[in-house]
Design a protein that fits this description.
CATH topology of the largest domain: Rossmann fold
Number of strands: 8
Order of helices and strands: HEEHEHHHHHHHHHEHEHHEHHEHE
Oligomer: single chain
Number of domains: 4
Strand content: 5-15%
CATH superfamily of the largest domain: 5'-nuclease
Length: 393
Amino acid sequence: MATRLLTDGWDAGFSDQDAAGGATHLELDRPTLLIVDDTDLKVPLVSSLVTALAAQPNGPPARLLLLARHVGAWWQQVNTDTDDDLAVGLAEDLADERLDLQVGQLSPEEQQSHHDVACKAFAAQLERQESQIPTVLVRTSPLDNEFANPLLVHMNALLTTLGDTTAVAAGTTGSGSRNQVLRRILGRERRRWEPIKAELGDTTTIQAIAVACLVAPGSRPGTCTALEAIPSLRHATALQREHIADWLHDTYHGDDAWVAPLRPDLMIGPDVAIRLAHDQAVIRGGHQILAPALLRSQVLSLLYQAVHRGEMTRKEAERQLEYVRGLRIRLLGDRVLQNLAWKAAVLRGWPDTFDAEYVALTQLHADALITLDRQLAGAVKDLVTVAPIEALY
């Protein structure tokens, strides 16, 4: 919703005061959508937003989207907090009808199309032949339509692509379908834990994996130190922690860390790709780097222009081109991306859609856009998160 409104000229995004630069400034100069997630944990923020927005009746249109698992005591508290001499239950008066997200479930036809598309996407990512993927239908009976949940459809598609014979097949019905898919998905990962779980138990194993992947120590000793944060391992011997650190390293091996970290997906432009190539930079492991499919042509053209102007030799250009070709970049370009890029270019009044493709792809799939172009960064900072090139190192 936020992405669609951004392309329609609105300001839109999440209100998160705990995030860096996340303070909310209600000086609106155009229509605005503010989204608050986990609303039941952010009652003071919601109350202040409701009061402030209600005090700007003549400003641009503003909408406050509150996301919560349920409506209960937190909503009553918001209404109490927004009471004043002129209005009782201000939030209730301004609120639209509650929308239960369950009404957005997939129809049987949509379930099948989602499943087919997801299988193709997983096959491409896992480098598997589409012809080797069995045809699996995920429809259930109208009275027991568990696959109306898109996430469950996609998990079943992943199992199908992996060749898991227990993926839910045509004609399958019954309340066990959902549990069957979840058990198989989680079971594939848990089977990797068996060697260490027999020694540590389920809880300590999960805690060790979580700590190691979040901290991502660069060495075996660093991992052993991090494991001391787990209560059950605090008094373990050094030899025991080293044994666990070695298992973590073997199971979740990182390129530049003892354990592979959880890191953001980053979008890079041709200027960043060439800077990395010039410096022959070593990119920190754990990052998923994204770019539109046009990146390679842009890099080739920029290097050709540099050689044509006499700024570098053909040999140097080829060296940089080989570096870029060797980068592990996920190149994307589909109809959805092109449509969103068109809208973004219209919104900004750009003469072409090249920069807009980077913006659109960041909105769709990446956590941040990395660019060396300060003018571009300034023009899109309200549409996407912009990160420095140092985020890659």
